[in-house]
Structures are given as C-alpha cells and as structure tokens.
Design the sequence.
C-alpha cells in the first residue's frame, strides 16, 4: 500500500517510569519502527516524577556483589520478562537460579525446618515427607490426611486465602506455611488476600474435586513424565542486576522522549468542536509544571492510588475503585560477608519467618547460593526482608535501628555473630498492591469504566499480577490497546 502524502502524528503520553511504563514505551517504539509508511506517525513521551527510571527495580554493585533494592528475579514460567530481554539484545545476560541447591526453610520455634518434599504450596502430595516433617503437629497432619476423604464443600463467593486454607487444612497450616509464603511474595496478610485473585487454580481445583489433595494428585498424574530432569529453573535474573532491563529499554527509546523529575499534575479529556459545539473525543491534555501537552492517548502506569488521583474529576466511580486497592511497604536489608563467616549456613535459598514467631524479619535469601556468579567466590550475601502488611512504622526507623534488628535475628536464628563488611538498606513505601477479597470484582469495574474513556489505558501491579513479568505484560497490553484505538480513528483525528 502506498504511503499517504503526509503522515498524521499520534501523540501518546506514558505516566510512570517503572517497568510497566517502560514496557509500554518500548512497545510504542517497536510500533513506530515497524510502521514507517502506514500514514500514522507515533510520537510518545514518558513522564517520571522521580530522578531515575525503574521504579522499585534498583541494582548496584558493592564489593563485587550485585545488590538489589527491589525484585531480585522473576518467575521463569511467565515468559514476558525473558522475552523482553531477548528483544532488547540482553538475552545472554539471563541467569537461572541454582535449583540444584533449592531448599527453603520455615522458622518454627527458633528452628529452621525445611519444607517437606511433595508440598505444592499448601497441598501435601507425598505421604511420608508430610508425616515426618516437624513443620506441622500431628493433629494438623491428621487433618491433612482427612482432607482427601472428607473435603469441605466449595463456597460460592470470594474469600481470603487464610479462610480457604483453614477450611481444608486448619489454622496451623495458615500460620506456619501459607502466611509466610504469601508474605514473601506479596508482603501481605493471608487473612486479607483474595483466594480467587491470588490462587485461582486452587479455587478451580476445589470446584472440580472438592479435595485439594485429590485435585493436585490428579493433575500430577495427567502431567507428562519428562524423560530427563526439567532444565528450566524456577527463577531467572540478570547477571548484572535487574536494572539491566531498565537500562536496555531506556537506551532504545527516542531521544528526548523521557522526562525525569516531571510529575504529571493533571490529565483532562478534550472534546472536538464542530460548529462551536462539543462533538467527539479529541484527546487528552497532560499537564506538568513545565507544559500542557495535547495527546491522543494516555497510558497511566502508576500505583492505583496515584491513578485514582488523576482520574478523580474524570470518572469518580473509577477513581473510587482504584483508591480501594491497598498497598504494603517493604524494606530490604542486604548484608555482605566474607564467605568464611557464612560457612555454617544451612544449604538452600533461605528461610521464611511466620508472623507468629514475633520477629521483625519476614524472610532471608542466601543470594550467593540462589544465583551463581552474582557474588565473588570469597563473598557471601544475605538479603533480609522487613515490613509487609501493617508494618509501615518500620519505614521510619533509622538505618542503625533496622540493622540492629536484623543482626539480632540472624544471631538468634543462624547463630551468625560475624560483622558484615557492608550493609545496604532500601525502603519501598506503598509499593506492593494487595489483592483483597473482592479484588476481581473491583478490577472488572475498573476495566469497564476504562473502556468508556477513549484512548486511555492502565498498567502496573494493581490489576492482574504483581511480579515483573506481570507488569511488563500490562505495559505491553496498554500500549496495544491505545494503538488499536488510534488505528480505528480517522487519519485527521491525529493531525491536530
């Protein structure tokens, strides 16, 4: 098809420079490169309120050790992140977790107890390891055995993960297993998180089989038996840190497209005038301290509460729904050691700390074991987590106080008294979205309201997944939605 005489220019604003916003920008950049002769020229601008890109993703190297302030990896089974890295030309930097040494412990009465073999999240699938583990009392083990024969009936409404677990396996399973696991992933409270949003597969299994144990065994039986051990690791990271992904995207974007330290104060819908009267949607004005820019599409890649503020006068029900998404905060305390000081650590990736243990620490990762090559051979790296749901007060503690709390826990749990060679503390305030009971209904409302706002799309961890691949996927989907909307508009619509 011949190119039009003069290409129309479609301007798209991306608000938020975390990985979701960056993924949206990269999707727009790919579309710009791929369609030079379609008659529709794409121009985009990314606005970030802070001094750097990446959001919670923050990597640095200290004494040869890669230190992560935010996520240290992503789930390999979710393809969006690895695919993005390959597109950006950094596929050779992907690093699998060292799964040959993968073992996770739970702290029980100041003792590290390994998760038993065959445990699929909260569902036991192997009799002997479950019977022998000191993780659960005999009464809980009997409850688990009975669940196979006398499962509870499914409920017809959303409930918390804790409620579902309690119905099947009892309160001790909530306290010692489910709560620390979810705290490690979401920084949240199992009694608040929606089982339909967080564990949809478990809900489906219960509806089909009633017994989760029976359902999990049936799923394992149907799964193909590999002729050799699976080569795909559970986690994947980047050799030089997760920020390599951020830097690689930024290097591909149009010069001048990224505006740091430029918060967006307001967005406003603009109507096209025909004979002096409002006729149709003509775009959006995006207002910063430096300019008001007319855009044909807007992607809001922000926390839900920030998005709610920008949409307050545009769609109040949508704003209210977004404001109802709660968030938790997190603190990472990373400590470097000489490897000789960590010689007595148990083998494995680290441990989780249930809330009932009454400790400041939520979890600890043995980074030098989890990933090969990110720490020099003569060094060791421990990454400790604090905060989580209901513990925002810790964000205001001094670095000295946080370090002292962590060192005390490490002393009492690991008998580790050595002084670290360095300590690095990162605080992430209101960073992790919490999918509370009723979350899916809330997001359905959000989706329907956004669909009625021409050229607007949302991205981020508030909707369908909080991990890095989920955020990348939402950014890509937001860019696609805006481009598809603009493609349906008359060419003149993007000419003003």
Sequence:
């Amino acid at each position: 098809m011949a190119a039009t005489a003069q290409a129309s220019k479609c301007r798209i604003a991306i608000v938020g420079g975390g990985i979701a916003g960056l993924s949206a920008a990269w999707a727009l950049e790919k579309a710009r490169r791929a369609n030079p002769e379609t008659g529709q020229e794409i121009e985009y601008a990314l606005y970030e309120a802070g001094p750097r890109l990446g959001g919670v993703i923050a990597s640095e190297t200290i004494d040869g050790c890669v230190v992560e302030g935010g996520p240290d990896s992503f789930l390999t089974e979710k393809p969006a992140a690895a695919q993005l890295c390959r597109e950006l030309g950094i596929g050779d930097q992907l690093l699998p977790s060292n799964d040959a040494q993968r073992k996770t412990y739970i702290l029980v009465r100041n003792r590290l107890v390994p998760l038993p073999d065959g445990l699929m999240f909260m569902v036991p699938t192997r009799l002997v390891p479950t019977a022998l583990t000191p993780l659960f009392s005999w009464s809980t083990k009997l409850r688990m055995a009975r669940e196979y024969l006398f499962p509870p009936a499914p409920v017809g409404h959303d409930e918390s993960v804790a409620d579902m677990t309690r119905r099947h396996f009892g309160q001790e399973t909530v306290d010692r297993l489910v709560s620390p696991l979810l705290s490690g992933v979401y920084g949240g409270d199992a009694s608040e998180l929606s089982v339909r949003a967080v564990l949809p597969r478990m809900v489906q299994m219960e509806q089909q089989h009633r017994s989760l144990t029976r359902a999990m065994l049936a799923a394992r039986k149907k799964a193909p038996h590999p002729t050799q051990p699976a080569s795909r690791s559970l986690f994947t990271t980047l050799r030089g840190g997760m920020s390599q992904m951020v830097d690689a995207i930024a290097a591909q974007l149009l010069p001048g497209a990224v505006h740091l330290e430029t918060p967006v104060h307001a967005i406003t819908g603009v109507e096209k005038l025909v004979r002096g009267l409002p006729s149709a949607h003509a775009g959006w004005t995006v207002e910063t301290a430096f300019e008001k820019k007319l855009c044909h599409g807007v992607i809001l890649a922000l926390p839900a509460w920030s998005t709610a503020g920008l949409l307050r006068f545009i769609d109040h029900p949508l704003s209210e729904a977004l404001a109802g998404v709660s968030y938790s905060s997190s603190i990472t305390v990373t400590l470097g050691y000489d490897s000789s000081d960590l010689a007595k650590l148990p083998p494995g990736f680290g441990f989780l700390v249930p809330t009932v243990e009454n400790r400041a620490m939520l979890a600890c990762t043995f980074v030098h074991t989890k990933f090969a090559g990110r720490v020099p051979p003569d060094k060791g790296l421990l990454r400790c987590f604090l905060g989580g749901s209901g513990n925002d007060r810790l964000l205001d503690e001094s670095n000295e106080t946080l370090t002292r709390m962590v060192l005390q826990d490490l002393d009492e749990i690991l008998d580790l008294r050595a002084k670290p060679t360095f300590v690095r503390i990162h605080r992430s305030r209101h960073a992790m979205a919490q999918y509370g009971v009723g979350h899916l209904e809330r997001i359905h409302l959000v989706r329907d309201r956004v669909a009625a706002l021409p050229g607007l799309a949302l991205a981020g961890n508030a909707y369908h997944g909080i991990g890095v691949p989920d955020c990348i996927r939402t950014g890509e989907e937001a860019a696609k939605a805006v481009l598809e909307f603009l493609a349906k508009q008359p060419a003149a619509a993007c000419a003003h």
Observations:
- Confidence is low (pLDDT under 50) at residues 1-6, 273-278.
